[in-house]
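Figure 3 (text version): structure tokens given as input.
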């Protein structure tokens, strides 16, 4: 797999931004500040790159814009030093800064007559992972997917350690795999037999149990990014919308 395919398809474990980690940017220890900034840059690379693909013509230009953004703005200008947990989402700060940086780059290249200008119009992409959306929407979608991946891993760990692997495998086959592969979900009756459930009713109940747990886990992961409970709930609802999921009623931790 080439570099760009790796960037576009990365499934690295994404830890959503914990404000205690962001606080490391203000540490008195220079090494701690540098390591924190580099860690956050690595974690936010995929959504920034996805957004950059909507601002550029080719993969190479998107990678160049992303690299320059992190080097010049995130690390060079200390963008994340401006992060304030009381002023909204960190991803909004990054996404807005990327848009402004792209405009600056476009103007700079145009002024000096550079052969390679970063275009600001949306073009058709051969990249199947990208949807017909704006840079901001693509950034948010990739962020949502990363949070979803994180929640899935935590939820899977919970069911495996609880001796309920059958519940998780059933949920994977019925919900997760069809969503990721964009295919029809197998009938619950078939999956019930495959995973050792003695009836469709019991299998359906297990699916709802796991869905409730996943919803709670998503809420917990989102809460890592904010301190206000109301804002955390808004973030969760926002994330669920992007994932195309509706939270089950009476969601609780099982």
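Below: residues designed for each position.
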């Amino acid at each position: 797999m080439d570099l760009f395919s790796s960037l576009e398809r990365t499934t690295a474990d994404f830890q959503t931004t914990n404000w205690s980690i962001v606080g490391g940017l203000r540490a008195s220890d220079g090494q701690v500040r540098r390591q924190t900034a580099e860690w956050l840059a690595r974690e936010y690379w995929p959504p920034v790159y996805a957004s950059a693909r909507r601002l550029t013509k080719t993969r190479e230009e998107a990678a160049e814009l992303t690299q320059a953004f992190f080097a010049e703005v995130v690390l060079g200008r200390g963008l994340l030093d401006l992060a304030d947990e009381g002023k909204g989402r960190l991803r909004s700060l990054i996404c807005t800064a990327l848009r402004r940086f792209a405009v600056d780059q476009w103007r700079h290249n145009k002024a000096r007559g550079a052969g390679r200008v970063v275009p600001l119009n949306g073009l058709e992409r051969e990249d199947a992972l990208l949807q017909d959306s704006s840079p901001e929407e693509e950034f948010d979608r990739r962020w949502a997917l990363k949070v979803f991946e994180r929640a899935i891993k935590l939820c899977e760990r919970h069911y495996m350690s609880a001796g309920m692997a059958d519940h998780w495998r059933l949920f994977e086959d019925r919900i997760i795999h069809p969503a990721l592969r964009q295919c029809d979900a197998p009938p619950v009756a078939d999956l019930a037999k495959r995973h050792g459930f003695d009836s469709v009713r019991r299998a359906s109940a297990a699916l709802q149990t796991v869905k409730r747990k996943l919803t709670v886990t998503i809420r917990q992961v989102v809460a890592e990014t904010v301190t206000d409970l109301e804002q955390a709930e808004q973030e969760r609802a926002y994330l669920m919308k992007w994932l195309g999921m509706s939270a089950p009623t009476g969601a609780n931790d099982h």
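Residues 162-243 form one domain.
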